[in-house]
Structure formats: C-alpha cells, structure tokens
Amino acid sequence: MRTLRESIDQLVSSSQLYDIYVSVYNNYYSNKDTTMMDVERRYSKVIDELMDLPKHNDMSHHLLLTQEKEHAAHVGYLDVDTGEIHALDFIDWVELIDLMIEDRSGWNMADQVSHVLWELTFWGWNRDTIRKGASDLMNSCAESEVEMIELSTLMDQLSGH
User: Which of 30, 56, 61, 148 is deepest in the core (most CB within 10 A)?
Assistant: First the structure.
C-alpha cells in the first residue's frame, strides 16, 4: 500500500499525471458541460495544494476504496482498529494526504487517485471552500441548538438500550 501523497508522487514521476485527469473526467464529468481542459486546470491546482501540505502521520486510518456497482466508487475513512468506515466529508486534507490507500476495487493507481481526489474535493471544491462549509455547518448546528451524537449512540437510544 502507498499513501495518497506517495501515489501522486509516483504518478507524477512516471509521467502519468494526465491519467488522473482523464480518469476524473471520464468518471465524473463526461456528461456535464465541463471540458477536459477544465478538469486538468482544476485538479492540477488540487494536486499542487495537496502536495504542499505538511506531513501528517496517522497509522490508525486508511483511505478505503471499494467498487459498489460496475463503475461506482466508494472512498471511505477507515478506522484500522475498529473497522468502522466514515465519510471524508469536511475532514481537512492535511489529515488525509498521508493516509495509506487500501484498495479493494482492483483499480490502477491513476483511477484510485482520481476517485480519492473526487471525494476529497467534495465534487470539485477546493480545500478552503470545504473548510468554510464545515465551519458553516458547525455554526448552523450550534445556532439551532442541535445536539450532535454518535450514530451508535442514536441506534442504542432507538433500540431502548
């Protein structure tokens, strides 16, 4: 297994960076009003931003890639100790860039990275937009006095335990 950073670095050093853009375009943009050039421009900025992030050593989580349907990718935040899988939504990229990619899909490295990038960018957003969205969501919850609880706690409450 390699980290996301190592995977991107290997693709760059082997002149396969364009393969990431092609995969992102083919999997997520081919039926939209977005050109291949738009994808390359947007995701080259994302890759530059990711590669400039400081090192973050987290051995207790992996990026888990699975294939749900014929082409549908699922990228999860796997807790290695418990086996629990969480969404990547609103997790700061610095916490994700050096996670190992655990591939259970059989995709090549460019496809793996493209699916992770799609998930990290929350469908095309940049890091600042995602962090602002997370902050807005937390503020909204605080203002509405919504109590945040773990899903397992809710399940226990609903089952009467």
Answer: 61
User: In angstroms, what CA-CA distances link 48 with 8, 31, 39, 43?
Assistant: 10, 26, 14, 8
- Between CA 79 and CA 88, with CA 47 as vertex, the angle to 5 degrees is 25
Chain mean pLDDT for the chain:
86
The angle at the Cα of 129, spanning 132 to 93, to the nearest 5 degrees, equals 95
145-158 confidence digits (pLDDT tens):
666 667 677 667 77
Residue pLDDT, tens place only, 91-139 = 889 999 999 999 999 999 999 999 999 988 865 566 566 666 556 556 6
- The helices-and-strands tally (H runs, E runs) of the chain is 6, 4
Contact assessment for residue 39 and residue 24, using Cβ atoms and an 8 Å cutoff: yes
Asked if 67 contacts 25 with a C-beta cutoff of 8 angstroms, the reply is no
Residues 6+ apart with CB under 8 A from 28: 118, 123
Helix (H, G, I), strand (E, B) or coil at 102: strand
Give every CB contact of residue 141 below 8 A, 6+ residues apart in sequence: 148
Give the three-class secondary structure for 153: helix
